[in-house]
Amino acid sequence: MKKFFLGLIRIIGVMTVLGVGAVIALDQYYQNVFPLFVTINGEYCTGMTVGRVTDLLNASYDLHRDKITVQTLDGAMHELPLDEYGVTISYKPAVAEYMKQCKSEPFQWLEDFLVNSLNLGAPRIHDLVDVTVYPSYYCDTAVMAAKLEQAAWLNENLYHDENTVSIIKSATEGYILVDETRDLLLKKQAVEFICAEIVNQLTNRSGIPYQGMLIDLSTEANKKICYKSIPYTANMKDTLAKWEGIQEFQDFHMIYKFGACEEIIDEAVVADWMALDERGKLVFDKENRPILDKTLIKEYVAYLASTYNTVGIERSFKATRGDLIKVSGGGYGNELDEEAEYAFLLNAFLNRQSGTRTPQYINEAWEKGSDDIGDTYIEVDMTNQHMYYYVDGEIVIDTPVVTGNTSRNWGTPAKVCFVYFKQKNRVLRGANYATPVKYWMAVDGHIGIHDATWRKEFGGEIYQTNGSHGCINTPIEIMTELYDMVELGTPVILFY
Prior knowledge:
Blueprint: H1 2-29, E1 39-40, E2 43-44, H2 50-60, E3 67-71, E4 77-81, E5 87-90, H3 92-102, H4 108-117, H5 125-128, E6 136-139, H6 141-150, E7 165-170, E8 174-179, E9 184-185, H7 187-202, E10 213-216, H8 220-226, E11 227-228, H9 234-250, E12 254-258, E13 261-265, H10 267-270, H11 294-308, E14 315-318, E15 324-327, E16 335-336, H12 338-350, E17 355-357, E18 361-363, E19 377-381, E20 386-391, E21 394-400, E22 415-418, E23 421-429, E24 434-444, E25 447-451, H13 462-466, E26 472-474, H14 476-485, E27 491-495
Parallel strand pairs: 3-10, 12-17, 19-27, 25-26
Antiparallel strand pairs: 1-2, 3-4, 5-6, 7-8, 9-11, 12-13, 14-15, 16-18, 19-20, 20-21, 22-27, 23-24, 24-25
């Protein structure tokens, strides 16, 4: 029995020694790794070294989403993703600091195990709550500066001693001032300043989460570092004085109304009214004001006339029979009064009377613009010997007629004209005839629309051998109705 107890004591002694040794060994082990029940930024870190946890957290961090914004003097915002501008991160300082907290008491790991695994006592707070740590930032200013050197926005509006002030002509704005002397970017200083600001802001972020940062170059202090203006020379001041004169000259706006169409006189148009010398340079008076070339205003009015005059032009017209016909000639249409418009425009410009203008016409159609016929008109289809009267796009008169005798070269001419005179009970006279009619509507010289009571039939091919002297012979019952409906100025389209 004695031997048994001695053996048991030896075994317990050996086991105690081994147990103590194991505990000591585990304590040594947990001096270099994180203890039980430790999570950092959501990662389970028990048994991991500082280096392993650092690598794990570094790999999970998206540095590209961290951006610094630089605001330039023009108000533009430029975002710099940190990973593209020589910035790297590491969680090692934060992880190492937390490791020190975990190693603050010997055999702490054993207490944690007993508390959390065997429910012995209240659990420790840091064993149950995920620890959040933040990275440290490291800047390679050489890479950062090289990247900034290539940025387009740091290569615009740069300072150069030869920069000056000039006046150029724009296609859409008339003459404009180009001043290359104000608030010019000092590229070298700007790059150095931005690099220093990035380093300063990032290296002072220990223990706090990253938030977007702004480097504002437009503040008074930063502007003095990154921008510089060139003093105005005597030549520059002379250019600026001329620019004031040009601005005053171009400060004129007029809108010409042509029905649904508009012609806008703005800086781009007025700029073409300035006199030029033989070298094509602007001519100024003694007060640095551009000199007006009046002939150029006359040319502009001629342009309006050539664009919007419609008398005699070829028109495309959709006939009632369905096809698209072309008719040219005739006295119907709009014809601008160029002399009146030149006088008006010159006076308005000289007195700076901007506004809206409906021009004066020598001949004026019912409608303005390219489609001056509108939707109320008389249509005479001489091939089919038929006449239609449209009111607001609807046919209200539809009748056969007889037009000029083609076999005797009296054929009614194709053209666009208009009703310019109306008379009842008129006697039509020619070289060898005098014919009374009840209703007469003159449309083009001696040609008119009238009744023809001597005719029993209308339409067909009568006009080829027994047609009129050129007029449009119309049944009396139609003329009785048509005469009172048609107003002076109504367009008349004659075509074959």
